[in-house]
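agent> Task received from the user: take the single chain below, predict its 3D structure, and emit structure tokens. No templates, no multimer pairing.
agent> Plan: (1) validate residues, (2) run structure prediction, (3) serialize to tokens, (4) report one or two observations.
agent> Step 1 OK, no nonstandard residues flagged.
tool_call: predict_structure(input=
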Amino acid sequence: EGLGEGEREELAKLRRMDSVLRKEMKVVDTLDRVMGARGRLSPPAEGGSSSHLLQGGGALLPEGAGGYDEEAETVCRHVDELSTDEDPYGACETVRSTCMPPRGLFNYLDLSYCLLPTARWATALLLLCWIAVLFLWLTSMVDFLVPSLAVMAEACGLKESVAGVTFLALGNGSSDIFSMTAATMSSARGMRLTMGEIFGNGMFVFVLIQGVVALLAPFTVDAAEYCRDCAFYLTSIVLVTFIMWDGFFTLWEGALLLGIYAAYIAVVLKFDDVRAALGLAPATEADAGEGAKGRGGEGEEQVALLSSDRYAIYAGRVDPSDPSAHAQMGQFLHPVPADMEYLPAHDRIVEIVKMPAVLLLKLSVPVVDRGLPASGWSRPIVAVQAAVAPPLVCAFLYLHTLPPWCYRPFAVLSVFGAALAAGAALALGVWYGTESGKPPGRHHVLAYVGFAMSVLWIYATSEEIVNVILAFGTVFDVGHTVLGITILAVGIGMQDLVTNVGVARAGLARMAAVACVGAPLLNMLLGLGIAAIAGNLVVAAPYPMPMTRQLVMCIMFLSGSVVVALLVLAASDFRGGAVFGITMVSLYVAFIGVCLVNQAFFQDTYLVPAE
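)
tool_result: status=success, residues=611
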């Protein structure tokens, strides 16, 4: 009471400093415990401290050279503890100096801790809206990828059944595969987000979407084919469980998953021959003809769906009867679909949101589509794409792969100058080396270029989605696994929901139902296999993946749901109707409820195997 005004202000300042120091000491203590635990569980890297070097794939990766700084990742995960009510900007300096993602466009933590530290609700709203926009852009990029894959399959001389389980399956599952790979390469904790997406997407697609399809359009599946796919899926779940039990994912274990997917493809391709040799056959000829498997199966219907309908955003934009380059470019770069005025209001909003991504894709991704006149060839359009693509490739490399020395001004100017020169040379070569109305002899080669450019766009967008989700988890203290189960799995799975429900309403309910098995199976084997190999090569070998209580719960729900689906369908002669649909939807609701309760009221603990 005897203190003057100046002394009281000084005392208040000292108390704020004490609070900040306590928070910083807590973060340092957490970091010390994490690094100590890491030292006990894995051998130290040779040739340097763990703060500057990372052992991965048999090589030492310096900070910024495609690897990551584990100390920085740990500090940024707990950066929220530096922000207090007295000093809401307390974490800003740490966020800006330490927490920039190694890949991607923006530091999304800056939004919460530097720009809007006192308005967390606004941060949540902005991040969720941006995630929704990125997911919409991702669907557009997949639409540009699929036609290239169809032409590549044709150029390789593959039968439609083989193309369905290889190239076209990869096209449909590309968004899942690249998002899992991006999550795994984000940090040593990224596999938790990946595993959350795998199990969450499995529940969303296999359980919820299959249940919705049964409610909207009851179906009958071929018992042998459905049991075959479910058997592979259950086997994959059990195998992944055993792999994770020791807390690590090795390079060879990732390769094993790819090998099992190859075995699945072989079984699918020979399945009808084996049944015929045994004197078995599908129940009806209609069943035999409806052999499409979505992402993981075969059938002419599926090839047709993938090669034409999914790319409606591109088809019909250029009139080959008008030789004017100006007219062709005007039609091609028109920002909205031709039938925009006839679309419902919500579809118009979606198309407007997708416009920036579609424009960039049109400017950089050449498309060869056999369903269009002249296979979609347009000399002025391809010339523009040839000029634009090299600088965009350089921008991708700078944002995602290049080491720090490449960011020196002279290096940046040299690389982009060379890219612009290469683009100009390619554009001139296209303009003077080809005819306007006639595609060149090796026009199909552009499909490979379109494939490569689409992959770059899909991967870059997936990286950005992962960065936003990880920032959301840090700001609101949500675990990686739960983020994968909810935001990432549901966002990626919305494409499956729209596609499968649309296919079911079009009269192909059986195709939609079996696609609900093929899609999560592809993610489990092909997606996780690729992600595990990438994590071992780029981040750490072996890649850490501790088994947690949350993951055990996911495994139990998913494997139990597969068994329940088999039992319910078997009891109804493999007819999926109202009972099956209500059962599956109820299982998904229970799954999400248990996950959220576990996140809110219990700490996710590690299950360490006995010594």
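agent> Step 4: summary for the user.
The beta strands are 53-56, 59-62, 219-220, 248-249, 543-544, 575-576.
agent> Done.
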